[in-house]
């Protein structure tokens, strides 16, 4: 089995992150994608040599003032800290194949101790970084073993992996 931390490091290092107004599945069929509040989006082009070893997702947000209802619910009022935690929760929910509302009701903005055990997907790792005005969480679940490599996998964008 490939180590998730090594996979993630290689994908972030060797992949390409593209911000544009068009990040649809039609325009970027093999990229992990996330849409931003300003109408643009990010497409993360993971090198093809890595894609067969894991499921790669990302989530991104432009930090904004945190609504008072969210401050009360999650106890975070700093926009950057909230965006970091939110994108991490979104990315991990995508890997767990859960709608974000389900993730939030179960875990809030925290990471469960055994996040890789959320479903039978394998070892999981993530990294949250800032790119200009955007906070991005990259995440991967390493595939334990892949018997059939004849079909190309399309990474998740929404709540489905």
Summarize the structure.
With 161 residues, the chain is an alpha+beta fold. The protein is built from five helices and six strands; from the N terminus they run αβββαβαααββ.
Account of the 3D structure:
The chain has a 3-stranded antiparallel beta sheet. Strands 4-6-5 form a 3-stranded antiparallel beta sheet. Mean pLDDT is 86; it is low at 146-161. The protein has 161 residues and is α+β, with helices and mostly antiparallel strands. It has 5 helices and 6 strands. Helices cover 29% and strands 24% of the residues. The protein has helices at residues 4-14, 48-51, 68-74, 79-95, 100-107, and strands at residues 16-20, 32-35, 41-45, 54-61, 124-131, 134-142. The two termini are 19 Å apart.
Terminal Cα span: 19 Å
Instruction: State Rg.
Output: 15 Å
Based on DSSP secondary structure assignment, what is the total number of beta strands? Answer: 6
Strand order of the largest sheet: 1-3-2
**Share of helix among residues?**
25-40%
Major beta-sheet overview:
3 strands, antiparallel
Low-confidence stretches: 146-161
- Helix- and strand-based class? alpha+beta
SS element count, helices: 5
């Amino acid at each position: 089995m490939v180590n998730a931390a090594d996979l993630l490091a290689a994908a972030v290092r060797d992949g390409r992150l593209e911000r544009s107004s068009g990040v649809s599945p039609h325009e970027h069929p093999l990229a992990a994608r996330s849409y931003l509040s300003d109408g643009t989006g990010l497409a993360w082009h993971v090198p093809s040599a890595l894609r067969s070893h894991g499921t790669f997702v990302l989530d991104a947000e432009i930090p904004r003032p945190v609504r008072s209802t969210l401050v009360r619910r999650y106890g975070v009022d700093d926009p950057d800290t909230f965006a970091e935690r939110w994108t991490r929760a979104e990315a991990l929910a995508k890997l767990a194949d859960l709608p974000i509302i389900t993730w939030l009701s179960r875990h809030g903005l925290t990471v469960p101790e055994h996040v890789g055990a959320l479903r039978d997907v394998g070892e999981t790792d993530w990294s949250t970084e800032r790119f200009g005005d955007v906070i991005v969480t990259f995440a991967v679940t390493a595939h334990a073993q892949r018997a059939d490599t004849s079909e190309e996998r399309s990474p998740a964008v929404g709540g489905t992996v």
